[in-house]
Amino acid sequence: MKKSNKKAILRWNSTGITVAGVTGQPGNTSDKLYNPRGIGIDWANALYIADTDNNRIQKYSKNVSVGETVAGQSSGIAGAGDDFLSSPHDVVVDLNEGVFVADTYNHRIQLWTRGSLVGTTIAGTTGVAGNSSDKFNFPYGIAYDSITGGIYISDTRNYRIMYYPAGARNGTVVAGGNGQGLNNDQLGFQQSVYHDAVTNSLFIPQCDTNNIIQWSVGASNWTLVAGYLNGAISSSSNGFSCARDVNLDPMGNIYVADRDNRRIQFFSIGQSNGTTIAGITGITGANASLLMGPVSVVLDTQLNLYISDYANNRIQKFMRY
User: Fold this and answer.
1) Which of 71, 73, 65, 67 is nearest to 92 (CA)?
2) Is pTM beyond 0.90 here?
3) How far apart are the first and last CA of the chain?
4) Alpha-carbon distance 85 to 80, whole Å?
5) Would you give the DSSP letter of residue 21?
6) Which of 85, 132, 256, 262 is the most exposed place for a label (fewest CB within 10 A)?
7) Is the Cβ–Cβ distance between 306 and 47 less than 8 Å?
8) For the segment 177-194, what is each residue's pLDDT rounded down to a tens digit?
9) Pairing status of strand 120-124 against strand 139-144
């Protein structure tokens, strides 16, 4: 039997569905979110949402319209104790439903095992900012390596990506660490990080320099994936205005939350010109086809898109068809 050479058709409905939160209504009840940022997704397509200004992580099981607090206080109160969070900006979940949280304003990474009422600090020092190998200065993003069990941390205001092996309390700089800038050994206010196991490299969206870069683990510099080397703001097909998050699908295609252009850009593998697949370039709004502040994008097993539209206090789903 002949093998088909046809590529999977990738297209999405331009009208989104609100699957978490209430559009334009911030709140701390179980059906509401308050400026949500990062999204994680588990094997059952449940969403884990960094409900940033409620200082908690909310889990939304598939087809359920209310969330369950799995880290932090359900009331939304911030704190520095083991059972509190303070402005968490990102979340990932492992195969055991362990929840890893970038507890940004506490300068630490917390692990909340399934069903636990308290977290364990696995990296950073609670409430202490720094640039040593055991400290962070506002960790915004987190990526989990399912092969090694280690974690990659976007240590935003130290302009570096740190790698922590499982169980280690001291990390290693694997990208950046040379100050903020445009040089190919520097980073420019990166808030998220994506680890691609296939290429063993990091894809890093940079808000201030408006580009996506790829940094192979073990390399001393990056290569440009999309955007401009000079950091220029652009609304063109290959430009960005604060590239805020990046994700890859199993084929290696790239999805970018282009925050201030109010859109999600799709880049076929190897291509530097993108296509807008959610939102409308430069147009802000709260209806089903517009985005106010897209800051995170994840994919489920069917390649449906989930977008954290933080300024609308909601998570939007755009169905693949």
Assistant:
1) 71
2) yes
3) 27
4) 6
5) E
6) 132
7) yes
8) 999 999 999 999 999 999
9) unpaired
